[in-house]
Amino acid sequence: MRDKYPGWYPKSAAEASALWGTAIFVPDANVLLHCLRHPAEVREELLRLFDALKDSLWAPYQVGLEFHRNRLDVEFGAQDTYDVLIKDQEATIEKARERLRQLRAHPTINVAKELAALDMFATDFRARMAASRASHPTEEIAADVARLTQLLEGRIGEKWKPEQLVAVKKEGDDRYAKKVPPGYKDAKKDAGEFDKYGDLIIWKDMIAKAKEEKRPIIFISDDAKEDWWWIHKGRKLGPRPELIEEFQAGSDQDFHMYEFGQFLHFAAERFPEIKAGVNQVEKSLRDDERARRKQSEAAEASQARARLEELEDERDQIVGLLSGAPGTMTPIAATVDRASLRARLSELNAELESTTLSTDHSTPLAPEQASDPAAGDRDS
Asked: Is 0.70 surpassed by the pTM of this model?
């Protein structure tokens, strides 16, 4: 039965290892960007890994494009961090100063002493950030970009023609509507005309490369989304079964994926020259992933708060209209059917109830209010 459902049988360690002898290794853009964003010793280990793989290393044009689009954000973002941290620290310390200044007589706290300690910390922190800025490895990172560029010389796929992009846009819209992987999790990405189809373009290039070379593909990715990974109860079992089957049907070759940290351990067994530095690299990757996740959660929380405020404003307006509150009867409101307003109010309350916020500052209307706050004043 396994030959009929090949994607539904996760590869054993031995089966995955057997691919390494003939596979083409394809890193995604974020994996390449790791060569720029980490400390010097980690960057060196990563570049040594890519050097060890170089005879089997290849990347679709789209991967290189995404790398170059994001490279300066990574480089300049690191340089901007010094000023950002100073600004954030000063804002936090100023709040502490203000609380101390407002403190009335206290039996143990010496306000003047604590204010002086805060000033000393702020001065020391600014000095440390200035020293870090002065030693920022701008030239070293530029050299690493040059090394990575050389490693990928002659190992980048061809740029897609305009007519190919138009065709993939049409196909992508159909696939995403049906949640056919990969890429449908980017369906709402608001960027360039074809940016939301980047994963699909990479996917199609990998299939074409495997077919042309008659070799399997091992994709190394930091993308944790469900449109790439087969995830069961929070556990990643391997690539999506649909991907395995589509890849084999399109190329007659096998396909496998690794998260970068997982890939490092397997690579270290094959390339002794990188084995000693794997633990250090993996720690740096974990730290980076935790920071990325926190940033993502903060951005999502901010978006949720903004959406909550929009819902509350609309709800309050409808409540005012239905109750006849002064100043709410606009010409538009006079033409709106009360039943429609009540229906919309129910929708708003349902959405508010389903919105989970760690800093929720509002609660939905009670059920009896949700139907109509002006229940005693219905149209006849």
From this structure: yes
The whole-angstrom separation of Cα 231 and Cα 1 is 22
pLDDT over 70 at 296, yes or no: no
The CA distance from 16 to 266, in Å, is: 10
Q: Which residue has the tokens 């189809």?
A: 197
User: Is the Cα torsion angle 318, 322, 328, 334 positive or negative in sign?
Assistant: positive
Q: Taking Cα atoms as reference points, which of 48, 78, 70, 39 lies closest to residue 287?
A: 39
DSSP letter, residue 24: E
Cα distance between residue 182 and residue 229, in whole Å: 9
Cα–Cα distance measured from residue 140 to residue 188, given in angstroms and rounded to the nearest whole number: 37
Tell me the pLDDT tens digit for each residue of 166-195.
999 999 999 999 999 998 888 777 767 788
- What are 1's two structure tokens? 């039965």
Question: CA-CA distance, 81 to 298, in Å (whole number)?
Answer: 17
DSSP letters along 221-274, please?
A: E----TTTEEEETTEEEEE-HHHHHHHHHHHSS-EEEEEHHHHHHHHHHH-HHH
Helix then strand then coil, in percent of the chain rounded to 5, is 65, 5, 25
The kind and range of the H/E element at 45 are helix 40-53
State the DSSP code for 26.
E
Contact, 247 vs 256, CB < 8 A? no
What tens digit of pLDDT does each residue of 235-289 get? Answer: 888 899 999 999 999 999 999 999 888 888 888 888 777 766 677 777 777 776 7
pLDDT beyond 60 at 358: no
Token reading at 371: 């139907």
Q: What is the mean pLDDT of the chain?
A: 83
122-136, 181-195, 204-218 — which is least confidently predicted? Answer: 181-195
CB 194 within 8 A of CB 159: no
Q: What is the DSSP string of 176-212?
A: HHTTPSSSGGGTT--SSTTGGGHHHHHHHHHHHHHHH
Q: How much is the CA Rg of the chain, to the nearest whole Å?
A: 28
Query: Using one digit for the tens of pLDDT, what is the confidence trace for 316-336?
Result: 888 887 776 655 555 445 556
Residues 6+ apart with CB under 8 A from 351: 311
